């Protein structure tokens, strides 16, 4: 284990420190400097490069990474025929994850797509540690989306999108950290269900709404009957109140402009018949 740790440290030092380029390297470097001096100031066009504020330049001299890490922003100097550099964009980039056919934990096939936002946090690692950082991140995002949704039920996918997005962002960020990639955000865009399942869910939702409507109507009838019972008990205590209720009903009927008017019969006239 100790030997492995020493080797890993040496590999890091190779990317951060000057290396022994040998006699041929010194010879080529001297020739390059002589050419720069001989053709000065025309050689400045080939030696001076510029990178923008949002860019960094990773420089290789005779195939070896120069010490000091990525250069920029601003001016930097290279030797003709000796140095090779690559520009890296540090701005946030987004890409769409194509719709993925996923079999959920409750055996439902859904098509889910997402969008990922990421940026390069370490220009040197994004060039040295992976061949194509953008392409690798896209493939990894598609795989992570399928693996994550495969452990969820359909109800969880439809209701817990925020939690799924956060879990995917954390997983992608950990996996792409050695590549110098920082995943800033992941959003699940759309969940497409089979047509038959959509119809079944619509029928279930409609039945649920109808059941709730019947329960609400029954509760309303119960409250109305209870209120009517209480009103009847109050009116029964005073015959005059019942008569006033009759007159109020007559007033309501007359306001509707009906051709037939019904006069309520006072209950006092029926008391004798009721007793008999």
From TrEMBL:
The chain crosses the membrane at residues 21-42. GO terms for cellular component: plasma membrane. The lineage of its organism: Eukaryota, Metazoa, Spiralia, Lophotrochozoa, Mollusca. This is Band 7 domain-containing protein. Pfam families: Band_7. It comes from the Eukaryota. It comes from Littorina saxatilis. It is found in: Membrane. Residues 46-205 form the Band domain. Belongs to the band 7/mec-2 family. The keyword Membrane applies. Keywords: Membrane, Transmembrane, Transmembrane helix.
């Amino acid at each position: 284990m100790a030997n492995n740790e020493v080797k890993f440290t040496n590999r890091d030092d190779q990317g951060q420190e000057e290396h022994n380029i040998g006699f041929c390297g010194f010879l080529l470097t001297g020739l390059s400097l002589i050419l720069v001096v001989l053709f000065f100031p025309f050689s400045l066009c080939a030696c001076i490069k510029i990178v923008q504020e949002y860019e960094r330049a990773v420089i290789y001299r005779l195939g070896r990474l120069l010490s000091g890490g990525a250069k920029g922003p601003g001016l930097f100097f290279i030797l003709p025929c000796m140095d090779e550099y690559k520009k890296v964009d540090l701005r946030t980039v987004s890409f769409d994850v194509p719709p993925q056919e996923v079999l959920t934990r409750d055996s439902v096939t859904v098509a889910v797509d997402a969008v990922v936002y990421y940026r390069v946090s370490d220009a040197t690692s994004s060039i040295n540690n992976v061949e194509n950082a953008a392409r690798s991140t896209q493939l990894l995002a598609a795989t992570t989306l399928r693996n994550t949704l495969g452990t969820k039920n359909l109800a969880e996918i439809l209701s817990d999108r925020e939690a799924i997005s956060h879990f995917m962002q954390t997983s992608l960020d950990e996996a792409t950290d050695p590549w110098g990639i920082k995943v800033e955000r992941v959003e699940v865009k759309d969940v497409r269900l089979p047509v038959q399942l959509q119809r079944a869910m619509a029928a279930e939702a409609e039945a649920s709404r109808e059941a709730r409507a019947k329960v609400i109507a029954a509760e309303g009838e119960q409250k109305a009957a209870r209120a009517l019972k209480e009103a009847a008990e109050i009116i029964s205590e005073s015959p005059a109140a019942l008569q006033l209720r009759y007159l109020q009903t007559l007033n309501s009927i007359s306001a509707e402009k009906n051709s037939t008017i019904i006069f309520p019969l006072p209950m006092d006239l029926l008391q004798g018949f009721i007793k008999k």
